[in-house]
Design goal:
By secondary structure, the chain is of the alpha+beta class. The chain contains four helices and seven strands.
Length: 167
């Protein structure tokens, strides 16, 4: 599998991937993370592509996964307030959001997170408490649950994880 920046012509495929992810999460007992508001909206995906923060995972040239990645100091405003714990480090970090795969190739999520880790050596991620699939993946990859954060798009808490920084 390879990872490259998302192109505008990939947008219809991203919409398919997110629709599949919403259905998958609902079947696995997590209907509220992206379902009620049909997250993520197309205008956000377009902005991610334009700003160079959207990536796709390819298997034999076919888009099988997607995610948002950005790196820098204090880049995620919702991570400024964490309850029930604290971040492992305050130095610049990468953030991964909106990770989705079509389920056709095992290991898409791990490949995307590993790629992001290789870019920066310090990642932060959050996920809905009902997203046990993502929680299991994060644990397998060495992420540590640090506390709870909240996002503006819905009232549900998110478990906050980080990994790193590499020393």
């Amino acid at each position: 599998m390879t990872i490259r920046p998302t192109r505008e012509e990939d947008l219809p495929r991203l919409e398919e991937l997110y629709a599949q992810a919403r259905a998958f999460m609902a079947r696995r007992g997590n209907p509220n993370q992206w379902g009620p508001n049909r997250w993520p909206p197309v205008d956000l995906l377009r902005r991610d592509i334009t700003q160079g923060h959207s990536y796709v995972c390819l298997d034999e040239g076919r888009v099988v996964g997607t995610f948002f990645y950005q790196f820098g100091p204090d880049i995620e405003p919702t991570y400024r307030q964490i309850t029930g714990g604290s971040w492992g480090a305050e130095e610049p970090y990468g953030v991964v959001h909106r990770l989705a795969g079509d389920g056709s190739v095992p290991g898409i999520g791990a490949r995307c997170l590993d790629w992001a880790w290789e870019q920066c050596g310090h990642l932060r991620v959050d996920t809905h408490p009902d997203n046990t699939v993502m929680q299991g993946l994060l644990a397998r990859l060495g992420f540590v649950r640090r506390g709870i954060i909240y996002v503006p798009q819905d009232p549900y808490p998110r478990f906050a994880y980080d990994k790193g920084p590499a020393r």
